[in-house]
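Can't paste images in this forum, so I'm doing it all in text. The chain is below; anyone willing to post the predicted structure tokens underneath?
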Amino acid sequence: MSTHQPNGTHLLADMSGIEAGLLVDCTRIEQLLRAAAAAAGAQVLHSHFHSFGSGLGVTGVVLLAESHISIHTWPENGFAAADIFMCGASQPHLALEVIEEALQPECSEVRTVDRAPPH
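Text version of the structure:
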């Protein structure tokens, strides 16, 4: 019988006022999210990223043993939406710090949701 608890923390970050050039490079954004996962103490299992074309946005996900980190970018609006869900001993707030440090948004609105099975 597993002793793993499905409880976790889910951060939803809406970041605006980001330089457009920081939101278009798939490889750079993938490296950023992988670094964020490492900073949080999470184990990366797989990742997949897609560019919508030159100068356009990126969407991607890093699958973690502890759950996931995803991002969607709109360089034309200087906007990125990040979704960080982690359970166990990982620390999603540390992942968000790494992302915000790299993207330098003028404004970041973060919602925190505690995830757990219904009682």
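The chain has two helices and six strands. The mean pLDDT is 95.
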